[in-house]
Amino acid sequence: MNFLAHIYLSGNNDLIKIGNFMADGIRGKHYKEFPLEVQKGINLHRAIDTFTDAHPVFRESTKKLHSRYHHYAGVIVDVFYDHFLAKNWTSYSNENLAEYVDHFYQSLEENKSILTDKTIKLMPYMIRQNWLLSYQTIEGIHQILTQMDFRTKNKSNMRFASEELIQFYEDFEKEFTVFFKDQRIHSRQQLDNM
Q1: Please, are residues 20 and 39 in contact by the beta-carbon 8 Å criterion?
Q2: What's the pLDDT tens digit per position in 11-53?
Q3: CB 9 within 8 A of CB 183
Q4: Which of 10, 120, 173, 179 makes the best surface tag, with the fewest CB within 10 Å?
């Protein structure tokens, strides 16, 4: 799961959303340095990633990409799945996606004092280019994957992955729908147990 799904799966608590959003940059027990609700978000992020990586439907999606992208296949599917969440947003939320995204950006601004340096550096690019809303289109996904490829010094070839998104579009969308149903249940259980 990529940014949008992680935020969505956090429920309605802004601090849990923030923790979930910035969790990738927080190693080991360093999460204990943050407020309790942010800690919950970080732990939820880790639980979501573990569940995702082991899910047979997610693995089915990555198989289509392994030969060309190797260990980046999972990262690419994470982004593809965010596309299908954004595209089908009204099936998952009563809130308008643009308003939802704006609210999240605002919550980042309001809570800057608890954000990691990495998150603070990422924010201007993310907000200016409106990454979360751009996931709705294939062109937006292509731009995100191109930026990610650039960060790997173009070794990952992720900039080409929108070709597979188009080629296997219906398959990926069906797989996302099945997977995300399970992931929503799993995430709710995790939140209930925190």
Answers
A1: no
A2: 999 999 999 999 988 888 888 889 999 999 999 999 999 999 9
A3: yes
A4: 120
DSSP secondary structure of 39-100 = HHHHHHHHHHHHHHHH-HHHHHHHHHHHHHHGGGHHHHHHHHHHHHHHHTGGGT-SS-HHHH
Three-state SS at 121? helix
d(CA 38, CA 44): 10
Residues in the chain: 194
Quote the CA–CA distance of 152 and 78 in Å, as a whole number: 17
pTM: 0.94
Provide the angle, in degrees to the nearest 10, between the axes of the packed helices 169-192 and 73-87: 90
State both tokens at 186.
């799993």
Q: What is the DSSP string of 87-151?
A: HTGGGT-SS-HHHHHHHHHHHHHHTGGGS-HHHHHHHHHHHHTTHHHHTTSHHHHHHHHHHHHHH
Q: How far is CA 110 from the centre of its chain?
A: 21
